[in-house]
Design brief:
The protein is of the alpha+beta class and 383 residues long. The chain is 53% helix and 16% strand. The chain has helices at 3-24, 60-67, 71-102, 124-148, 175-178, 181-210, 248-255, 295-317, 326-339, 345-357, 360-382; strands at residues 43-47, 51-56, 153-161, 164-172, 217-221, 236-240, 243-244, 263-270, 273-280, 289-292. Strands 1-2-3-4 form a 4-stranded antiparallel sheet, covered by helices on one side. A 4-stranded antiparallel sheet has the order 7-6-8-9, with helices on one face. Strand 6 (236-240) and strand 7 (243-244) form a beta hairpin.
Length: 383
């Protein structure tokens, strides 16, 4: 879809939101959520005419219903050490990729924010669906764990740039700031791990789509390959070596076993007629064609792929030990978590030692380093 058209649609949405909330204020926001009708913070607040924070009561009842179970507290606590492990891995990859970016080992585009990849690397609609899934699940997980600790969840909402969603949030009351480090760590660990779960589910569902029945159409023919000048873009693969092709799974099961310089028989459908061809594969065991499924299956595969990738990136990125990311609170909770494991001198000394290294002052210093590298990477990639 045309990038200009997509951006225009978001701008129209942005204008509509501004008109709607300027006209109605908070009157309509809470009509179906009477428990939250006294929250005057709900609505749209704009900054410089292009940025906005949209606070709503959507999802608050769901958070109340799921978060009332106290076992979520144990889940949150158990996730802290797992998040620490992932955070160490993420921090290493972050430093390694940043060094390779500045030394020219990776393309400059690798330093661009994800939003700049939409419309080019990331298709708009599947990408936006994936992003909405990721940030919604992430923030709902925060809200559920917070509610299990009886922390007030004031609102849910979106961060907007001219109508384009840059992120979502669950606004937790001031009780969060006054809660123990362990509780803040438990609440913070829930979001990234929810994204990791979505990533795993998406990966597990992908093979099912590869087996979906669909026509496979030749989308591109590479020059200087056996199929070039013989097959046409738009041809539908009917069979290969006599086997009927009805899905991606059928296609890949055959081509993965094809050897270099092997004879290949392909039947295609062109203009409603069948055509049979024989080829000798090249030195790589290929004939130089690229195929794609029907638009519906392609859309589903793209959405599932970007749901997995964006959730993985969102979960891992948020575990960097930097304010205001979740990793800051997760790391800050570690000394207190270890202290609560037991009353022995070993745990006490280990906790005191970690608290000397891992504290808000040191983590704030690390935050400056992390965000400094991020902003330098973005600036480097843009110029």
């Amino acid at each position: 879809m045309n990038n200009l058209l997509i951006i225009s649609i978001f701008i129209i949405i942005w204008i509509f939101l501004n008109i709607y909330y300027n006209k109605n204020g908070d009157k309509e926001v809470n009509k179906d959520n009477s428990n939250y009708k006294n929250n005057n913070n709900l609505g749209l607040k704009t900054y410089f005419g292009i940025f906005g924070i949209l606070r709503t009561s959507l999802g608050l009842k769901l958070i109340d219903k799921i978060g009332k179970y106290r076992f979520w507290q144990k889940v949150g606590i158990l996730l802290i050490p797992l998040c620490i492990i992932i955070s160490i891995l993420t921090f290493y990859m972050f430093l390694d990729s940043s060094i390779r970016l500045f030394t020219g080992e990776v393309p400059k585009d690798a330093g661009k924010p994800v939003i700049f990849l939409f419309g080019n690397t990331i298709p708009w609609i599947p990408g936006i669906i994936a992003l909405i899934i990721g940030i919604t699940i992430h923030e709902l997980a925060h809200g559920i764990i917070a509610k299990s600790y009886n922390l007030k969840v004031k609102s849910t909402g979106l961060l907007l740039l001219l109508g384009i969603p840059l992120g979502a949030f669950v606004e937790i009351g001031d009780e969060f700031k006054n809660a123990s480090k362990k509780i803040r760590g438990a609440v913070s660990s829930a979001g990234p791990m929810a994204n990791v779960v979505v990533f795993i589910i998406s990966i597990l569902l992908t093979p099912l789509l590869y087996g979906a029945t669909t026509d496979l159409t030749i989308s591109k023919i590479l020059e200087n390959n056996p199929a070039y000048g013989v097959l046409h873009e738009g041809d539908i693969i009917y069979s290969i070596n006599g086997k009927r092709i009805t899905s991606f799974k059928d296609f890949y099961e055959i081509i993965k076993n094809i050897k270099p310089y092997e004879e290949l028989e392909i039947t295609v459908i062109r203009d409603g007629k069948k055509y049979d061809y024989k080829f000798i594969t090249n030195e790589n065991g290929k004939i130089g064609i690229m195929v794609q499924p029907s638009s519906y299956v392609l859309f589903a595969l793209q959405t599932l792929y970007w749901t997995s990738m964006l959730n993985l990136m969102l979960g891992f990125f948020n575990l960097l030990p930097a304010i205001p990311l979740d990793g800051f609170h997760v790391w800050n909770a570690l000394p207190e978590l270890i202290r609560d494991l037991g009353k022995s001198r070993i745990f006490s000394k280990l906790s005191n030692f970690l608290e000397y290294i891992i504290n808000e002052k040191n983590l704030s210093s690390i935050s400056l380093v992390v965000w400094g590298i991020i902003f330098m990477s973005i600036a480097y990639s843009m110029f």
